[in-house]
Every structure is written in structure tokens, then in C-alpha cells.
Amino acid sequence: MIKLVAPSNSASTSGSDRIQRGALLKRLAILAAVILPLGCESARDHSRAFSIAEPVIEIIAPPTQRPAHEGFVAVEGAQLEYWDTGGPGAPIILLHAATGSAESWIYQQPVFADAGYRVIAYSRRGHGRSTSEPLDPQPAHAADLHALMQQLNIPRAHIVSTAAGSIVAADFALSYPERIQSIVFAASLISFRDPLVADARHRLSLEDVRRLPPAVLELSASYRYANPEGAARWAEIESRAHHPDAPAVPALNQVTFEALAQLETPMLLMGGDADLYLPPSLLQDLAARLPSAQVVLLRGAAHAVFWEQPRAFNDAVLEFLTQHN
After folding, report:
1. pLDDT confidence band for 3 (50 / 70 / 90)
2. How far is residue 323's CA from residue 207's CA, in Å, rounded to a whole number?
3. Would you list the DSSP string of 175-219?
4. Per DSSP, what are the bridge partners of residue 93?
5. Among candidates 293, 282, 106, 270, which has minimal Cα distance to 198?
6. pLDDT average, residue stretch 135-144
7. Residue 23 burial by Cβ neighbours in a 10 Å radius (0-12, 13-18, 19+)
8. In the chain, beta strands by DSSP E
9. pLDDT in tens, 166-212
10. What is the pLDDT of residues 71-96, one digit of tens each?
11. 231 phi, psi to nearest 5 deg
12. Residue ranges of the domains in the chain?
């Protein structure tokens, strides 16, 4: 089922509030399926019901972070910075965008930790304070994630990824499916090698779109206007996130939606309806190729859905993870 949900006005929600809003969304799904047409043949062939709520502008101050151990993990040819809230809960590993780092998850860290999870984020080689040696070829990001899990004694984890982080998550899932409890793919094309995505990049003129300033590309106009402080904080993190001289990093697999659809791993696809990379019609086509995945579309959000609408994002993730603990 595709849920089309709107932001609300705080960073976290109680369990009873989530249940009440979930019941409302289920009631709205019937109406939404009637009034919201699907835009392509593949979407009609694999239709989902939408849940709709009216959008509002969400302005949330960054919440107080929970205590976390910070350090570096040595992997082949690199030192990866990470933080880890610890504790006995099921692990969640957060995979950042190309414009992000371990620093990007300030709206998720306390909410997921307070929900009882052990929350871990790290900066991939070429990002944040992580360092890498000039190896040729560079080890794959998916191999780095596997090494990090081994060193942190994490046999299995929920993977919550966004944008380019989802490309790493998909590659990791194909190589190490036994290490994943569930995957969230947020605001991502997931595979640049799949023919669907190659065609979409051409249709959407993504090579031209990528020339836009990062904040314009990844944050919606509504968010930038209504929350200039939040936009400035995002831009501050982005400005130091990616090393300009970082070498290219290969994948372990030829990632395609056909290959991902063969996995038994529970998946959640998330997108924002103002995303220049992943408009709702394309999200619908991705969903058609991953028919067992749940899908949530956030109303009014652009590419940085986890940042623009943290409460809606966090609630959707926690509801999904609860089903797969």
C-alpha cells in the first residue's frame, strides 16, 4: 500500500498518536484510491492505495541528541567515523546521502533511540571525517558496511538509507542478505544500472538538474522559505560532508530491481512529492518492480525527506520497523 502522508508539527509521536493517525490513514486510503489517478501502465498494473492528508509546513528545532559513543572503525584502506548509541535494542544503521555524513541524522538519532533501538551512523569513505588511502580500485562501500558491522559486533540490523545511501544498501543487500532485518530506501533511484533508471534519468534531464545548487536541488522551495534556519543548518552540514577529491568507489553487484525483487528482505520505499530526482510517477514505477515493498509518499517534501519532514519520516520508519522486529 502506498501511503501519501503530510508532515506534522513535532519530531516524534507517541505510540497512541501513531495508532490513531494510522487508523485515519487507512480510512482515507479508500477515498484516495478513487480520487488519485495513477499515471503509467506499470503503475496501473501494480496499483496500490494511497492515503492522503492535507500538507502543512513543518518547522522543528533540532532535538537534543542522546548519549552516543563516537570513534573510528578501521576498514581496508580507510578509517570510518561513526557514532553508536549502544544498548540492547535492535540495531538501526543509518546510511546518508551523497550530500551528507554521520552528522546528518540529528532528527532521527534521539527518536529512534527513545523507541528502544540501538542507533548507528557512519560516514562513508570520502565523507565527513572519514579518511581513505589512494587505493585503486577502492573497496566497495558495501564491503565497508560489512566490515563495520563485524567490528561493532552487529550480526543483523535494520538499514535506513536515503538517496545515495540507498544505492549502498541495495548493493549490500544482494551480497549479505542474511545481515539485514529490513531496509528503508528513501528518496532514491536505488540503481543507476537498471534500465528503468537509465531511462528516467534521460526523461527527467537529471544531468541538468544536478547542476543546481545542492540546497535548491534537495530541499523544497516551501521548506527553504518557511524554515531558513533549517535550510542553513542542512547547507552547513552539506558543505563539509563530501571530500571534493574523493575517488570513485565501485559496487559489488550489478544492482537491478529484478535482483532486489528476489530477496525476502522486508523493504519500505519512501519519497517526497516535490523530489526532483524521484517524482511520484517514478516512485510508482519503482514500486511496481518491487511488488512486496511498502511505499510511503510524503506530501510537500523534496529529496531530503528525512530532514524536511522528520516527524512523518520517523513515524513511517518506526511503524515499518515494528512490523519486522
Report:
1. low
2. 38
3. H-GGGEEEEEEES----SSSHHHHHHHHHTTHHHHTTS-HHHHHS
4. 120, 159
5. 282
6. 94
7. exposed
8. 2-5, 69-75, 78-84, 91-95, 118-122, 131-132, 157-162, 180-186, 267-272, 294-298
9. 999 999 999 999 999 999 999 999 998 899 999 999 999 999 999 99
10. 999 999 999 999 999 999 999 999 99
11. -65, -40
12. 2-323
Superfamily of domain 2-323: Alpha/Beta hydrolase fold, catalytic domain (3.40.50.1820)
Tell me the chain's radius of gyration from C-alpha atoms: 18
Please state, rounded to an integer, the average pLDDT across all residues of the chain. Answer: 87
Beta strand 131-132 with 118-122 is: unpaired
The helix or strand, by DSSP H or E, that contains position 16, with its residue range, turns out to be helix 15-35
**Bond preceding residue 137 cis, omega within 30 of 0:** yes
Confidence at 139, pLDDT banded by 50, 70, 90? very high
Query: What is the C-alpha separation between 150 and 144, in angstroms, rounded?
Result: 10
In order of 3, 46, 210, 268, the CA distances from 318 in angstroms are 14, 25, 31, 11
313: pLDDT strictly greater than 70: yes
For position 93, what pLDDT does the model report? 99
Structure-block grid coordinates of residue 252 = 559489488
Separation between Cα atoms, residue 107 and residue 128, nearest integer Å: 18
CA–CA dist 277, 164 (Å, integer): 11
**What is the structure's pLDDT at 82?**
98
